[in-house]
Input
Amino acid sequence: INGLDMGMQFRELADKLGCEFAEARAGALEMACESPSPEEVELTAADRRQEVCKFLVHTEQGDFEAKSVIIASGASHAKLAVPGEAELTGAGVSYCATCDGAFFRGRTVAVIGGGDVAVEDAIFLARACEKVYLIHRRDELRAASILQTALMELPNVEIIWDTVVEKIEGESQVEQLQIRNIRNNEVSALPVAGVFIAVGIHPNSEAFHGLVPCDEQGYIIAGEDCASQVPGVFAAGDVRTKKLRQIITAVSDGACAVAGVQHYLLNYK
Output
């Protein structure tokens, strides 16, 4: 079955199990802790928690209170913010080479970026595309040296240095890029059937800053068990620190996070 139908079956099952759904945009996450009672203090450390914490999720539809929270807000692809990008997304503009590369077999495409992801995308696309342009705004790549070596050995890949994309053009599909050399400001047209933008992604974690520790890029620090450094808060999917961000790893995180929440609540006092 297709993904939409499968998702609806998941939703129907959740409804039958009594799950309540609310559609609201989370503005912030707040933690409120209560000191343990004298009776709780007398318990051993293995039988109690020092503090009883509840979480308040502030939204435009009101506040939601919970004993535990799974943050699965994902990440957003960084955009070029040039004319034609939004209009032609899905019609030749893509942010995932492994997802959409097969649609451009035997055709000419461009990859924008100079990091590991951009170089990996160019290598992947070169296996099926007739020609791959890698457009980078600097005169050297930031990707790992082993990836650069593999890229340079490909006969159908051409790197366009010191260049930025000014505009993505096409009627109903991508037809060409308007590019500019940043050293001499020379503007030219580059005919391509598709453009893969790989200039980074940003975690959607702003609403949780100040409560949940994040790394320098803003990803919530959480291991394979999806537990953050705040007891009771779990992070699943692209928003957490991890090496591979794909649908299959996000689904795996979902299972791990739910198991973690179950274990946490069983020991909750």
